[in-house]
Amino acid sequence: MMATLFDNILEGVIADVAAREEVVPFKEIKRLSRNVPPARDVLSVLQKPGCCVIAEIKRADPVTNHVMPVADPATLARLCEESGACIIGCQTEGRRFNGSLEDVRTVKENVSAPVWCKSFIVDPYQVHEARYYGADLVALQVAALEQDRLVALLDRVHSLGMEAIVEVASEEEADRGVTAGARIIGVDARDMRTRTIDRGRFPLIAPGLPSSVVKVALSGVSTPVDLMRYAGAGADAVVVGEALSRSTTPDRLCRSLVAAGMHPACPSAR
User: Fold this and answer.
1) Rounded alpha-carbon distances, angstroms, from residue 156 to 152, 248, 262
2) InterPro entries, per this entry (predicted)?
3) How many angstroms separate the Cα of 108 from the Cα of each of 47, 132, 137, 184, 249?
4) From its phi and psi, is residue 241 left (phi > 0), alpha (psi between -120 and 50) or beta?
């Protein structure tokens, strides 16, 4: 079977982690990660009334083959926070998304909102790395992890005071995430294996999630209408990434989404 984009990304991630560990051994990154200020409270932010807007800063998208003109992530992050975004995310994968952990550090130093390290975490080393660089929240893709590894990584994330958006694309993956102890489930409309977007995944999967789980809609958000549709299906938060990074007026786009998420007509705001 031919390797997919997702497979190629994971292969690159594994190689890059091994290279970084050659420079900074696991024992050292573990020590460093436990000597940084405590993580910011993510759950209290996501559990507020309304549909929260998570602004994701990314420099490229290999699914759509777009390169975004993000010259200054700190400025974009501040604009998004000032426009009402509750969490700021940074895509850190370097080979396909042109991201880096330095973007997390830069953003963390310039906003007071929680910061999300949006990466492809397959190894405990990356969890400690993310915490050291300032992440309050990380991403764990169920499709990339065996169940034992998912449970172990989630436990490690929580032990460092962080939260994880456990990303799923099917009801089976959602069940695995809940069983692993996820407190936040993100339903991803984007399929990196087929390079397609299916906004119908969230309304299919979200109703089966426990009420105690924070529900996040990933991908497919570029307008207030998109946000309202996801909120109507039970989303507590949405992630806006490519549309934000490509916009010439990201503050205006962010404000319009935040306003929709707080509008009385938005189910999450009631």
Assistant:
1) 6, 39, 34
2) Aldolase_TIM, Indole-3-glycerol_P_synth, Indole-3-glycerol_P_synth_dom, RibuloseP-bd_barrel
3) 21, 11, 12, 21, 22
4) alpha
pLDDT, one tens digit per residue, over 173-186 is 999 999 999 999 99
What is the CA 69 to chain-centroid distance, rounded? 20
Task: Please give the distance of CA 85 from its chain centroid, rounded to a whole number.
Answer: 13
pLDDT, tens digit (0-9, with 9 covering 90-100), for 111-139: 999 999 999 999 999 999 999 999 999 99
pTM (predicted TM-score):
0.94
Q: Is residue 45 a contact partner of residue 114, using CB atoms and an 8 Å limit?
A: yes
Q: What is the pLDDT of residue 114?
A: 98
Contact 254, 219 (CB under 8 A): no
In terms of Cα–Cα distance, which of 169, 161, 160, 176 is closest to 124? 160
pLDDT at 135: 98
Residue 126's contacts (CB-CB under 8 Å, 6 or more residues apart) are: 17, 119, 138
Neighbours of 227 (CB within 10 A): 27
Give the HSE-up count for residue 135: Cα atoms under 13 Å, Cβ half-sphere: 32
- What percentage of the chain has pLDDT greater than the value 90? 73
Q: 3-state DSSP call for residue 238?
A: strand
Q: What is the DSSP string of 122-188?
A: -SHHHHHHHHHTT-SEEEEEGGGS-HHHHHHHHHHHHHTT-EEEEEESSHHHHHHHHHHT-SEEEEE
The residues that bridge with 229 in the sheet, in sequence order, are none
Helix (H, G, I), strand (E, B), or coil: what is residue 26?
helix
